[in-house]
Design goal:
The chain is α/β, with parallel strands linked by helices and 428 residues long. It has 12 helices and 16 strands. β3 and β4 form a beta hairpin.
Length: 428
Amino acid sequence: MKLTDFGRRYGGSSGTRQLMEDLGSALDGSLDVLMLGGGNPSHIPAVQELFRQRALQIASDARLFAQTVGNYDAPQGQRDFVAALVAMLNREYGWGLTRRNVALTHGSQSAFFMLFNMFAGPCAGGTVQQILLPVTPEYIGYADLGLSDDMFVARRPAIELLDRGQFKYHVDFKGLRVEAGIGAMCVSRPTNPTGNVLTDEEIDALVALARAADVPLIIDGAYGTPFPDIIFTAARPVWNEQVILCLSLSKIGLPGVRTGVVIAAEPVIDALTGMNAILHLSTGSVGPALAQQMVESGEILRSSRDLVNPYYSAKAERALRWVEEFFAGCSYRVHRPEGAFFLWLWFEGLPITSAGLYQRLKARGVVVLPGHHFFPGLREAWPHRHECIRVSYTPGDDVVRRGLAIIADEVRAIHAGAGAHDRRRQQA
């Protein structure tokens, strides 16, 4: 069987495939591990009950059930849900949206596949465009989305060292330029894998750069504001016609329904609608049906603020305390968790790579994600990319605590082994 370039590109190994296979095996019970590598949200009982009650309402209404599962929606997305989103966002933020500014997709991954290939790749006249990532590390799922090679060009961050063994990435604006050949810029806020939240001032500066270069700034808000609002620091919602804002129902508790939201200027939404029609015929109906009443009433914002945000904020602080307990005396730093639901651990000078640490931890029954997958488009050699791992704190507290203890023990063992090796060499 001879595969095309497309078949080889998307049918082979990738960081995203490794992540999802590990996650699927852990969740279906075929892999007996402490799963700290996945991006699955926690099952928050109060939030799940809201969606369960709505599902029961849909199931008990024969007409509504038939409409939800028995009809195609328009390729732009379920019209009433789109209208409810527009009304809510205009009411809350005064963005001046119309229905022509919003499209739904089959989850954020589908949205980014379409957006990235819309703005990067071969163009008329033989030119090639790329996506600029102004700061790395960035989301693992971006790396393999391009239909052409070298889709991304990325910039290293400035690193601020903080108390409690923490640090924070910032956009390094010194020398940051939107060069010819850049079709769009992209940032995630909060950032997966680090939990970093770009400040309002950083976002404003990036918008200004994008406007000056006449390219869109794509903001991946899958964990962000206005919903699910998994942000633990000040950050205002941002949209204008220079911005393509991508949201999702996944992290509020509905990853299985695969519903993404794209808010953008009308030409972008028109193009996405055409792509949806070709690639998917229409978008899914179940997610919009489950969330529509919450959007109409504004409950989706209240639940994000009062249920989702405090839940993850408390889990982040507990996980930080365990890191400080277990890694005391060990050479480590942790990115200040400002949002999302991950810890980004940095082991500067680790004698092995993060990929090697991943394999050793997996052998001990702990699954994390090695950091090297999170630097798409970074051309220069940088040891830092091989010194970090991503750890999720969404599982039960006992799983997170035991997993962190094993990670600390393994890091110490690696350093001790390297030290013994060095002593043997000196004695020889």
